[in-house]
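Figure 3 (text version): structure tokens given as input.
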């Protein structure tokens, strides 16, 4: 990619980040009365639901800490980060040490799920907030929550499985991918051989169990030994997850100067994009079937915001690593589709949920899932 184009993109991303995405969430989501953040926002930022997503609490605390650490030392950003940090600590942990998935606006518990993803985003928040403040207590919290994640990941029975394991034992790519991402984040701030061991284990497991080179696919769910389960869940490919996983793997390969990891990650990126890109309407499909059978998920052909931002960063990173113009061309294709369909020119921020043809399905800007994370992360990293 030519230097002039790189500068142009950096300026664009900074403009979108600082004059669109961040101001929208700063204005509409911060709860200065109860603490934390609202994420259920209508198109214009109106609050649709005062319940709070613990995923978003961790992600948004991470974002404002990251902005303070890497963009500008704005006291407002650090205050907003602290608002989420304090709320997480006070309200979002159950008595068993696990975290809730959803709480009321004043912190009363509502939902607790069978996953550890609230914990992964809390670790990210604690690590970045520790960097911003020099707060050793925050880093220690990150270590403790990380240890809890490891226990849940490694110990059968702590989390209620989705499928009864006595009947069918399964492995989840989402769990391994999330643990890898979290380990990379905490290892940056707290170098320890224990994190490297987990990183190596996650990388090995992704390639050993979930990547199917003969089928040119990364599967979301496989049998205990990596066998393909011939049902809709077992054949399910989530292009966004696979592509996100590919850039995590590229980061590992770059850190270790391991060309084998990088090359395998690039294969995952190539396969996932080829399978996921909608050749009729453009954009990335949410789910596809390994054997091109009808997907079970009714939202399979919707275009979500986050797979597109993950793909933008993955293609830029692949182009940076390889110098291959093919990745620049693919990046351009995704960039043009993304910036044509997702940004809202009237109220700002981006739509998150589009129909297959790119028309808006839901005008909302936030939900229990969508908050200020995937878009600003891509704008910061890209």
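Below: residues designed for each position.
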């Amino acid at each position: 990619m030519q230097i002039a184009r790189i500068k142009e993109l950096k300026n664009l991303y900074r403009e979108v980040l600082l004059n669109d995405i961040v101001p929208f969430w700063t204005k509409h989501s911060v709860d200065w009365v109860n603490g934390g953040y609202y994420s259920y926002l209508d198109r214009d930022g109106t609050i649709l639901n005062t319940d709070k997503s613990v995923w978003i609490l961790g992600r948004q605390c991470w974002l404002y800490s990251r902005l303070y650490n890497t963009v500008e030392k704005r006291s407002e950003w650090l205050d907003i980060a602290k608002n989420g940090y304090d709320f997480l600590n006070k309200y979002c942990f159950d008595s068993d040490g696990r975290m809730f998935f959803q709480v009321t606006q004043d912190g009363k518990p509502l939902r607790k799920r069978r996953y550890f993803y609230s914990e992964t985003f809390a670790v990210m928040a604690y690590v970045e907030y520790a960097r911003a403040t020099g707060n050793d207590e925050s880093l220690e919290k990150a270590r403790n929550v990380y240890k809890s994640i490891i226990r849940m990941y490694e110990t059968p029975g702590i989390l209620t499985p989705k499928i009864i394991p006595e009947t069918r034992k399964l492995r989840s790519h989402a769990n391994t991918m999330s643990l890898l991402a979290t380990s990379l984040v905490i290892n940056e701030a707290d170098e320890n051989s224990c994190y490297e061991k987990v990183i190596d284990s996650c990388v090995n497991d992704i390639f050993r169990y979930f990547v199917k080179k003969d089928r040119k696919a990364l599967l979301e769910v496989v049998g205990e030994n990596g066998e393909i389960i011939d049902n809709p869940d077992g054949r399910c490919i989530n292009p966004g997850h696979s592509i996100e996983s590919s850039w995590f793997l590229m980061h590992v390969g770059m850190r270790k100067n391991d060309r084998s990891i990088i090359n395998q990650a690039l294969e995952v990126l190539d396969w996932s994009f080829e399978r996921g890109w909608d050749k009729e309407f453009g954009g990335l499909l949410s789910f596809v079937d390994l054997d091109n059978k009808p997907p079970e998920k009714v939202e399979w052909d919707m275009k979500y915001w986050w797979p597109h931002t993950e793909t933008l960063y993955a293609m830029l990173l692949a182009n940076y690593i390889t110098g291959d113009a093919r990745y620049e061309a693919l990046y351009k294709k995704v960039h043009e589709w993304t910036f044509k369909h997702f940004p809202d020119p009237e109220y700002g921020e981006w739509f998150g949920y589009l129909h297959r043809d790119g028309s808006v399905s839901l005008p909302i800007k936030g939900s229990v899932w969508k908050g200020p994370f995937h878009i600003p992360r891509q704008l910061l990293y890209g």
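The chain has a mean pLDDT of 98.
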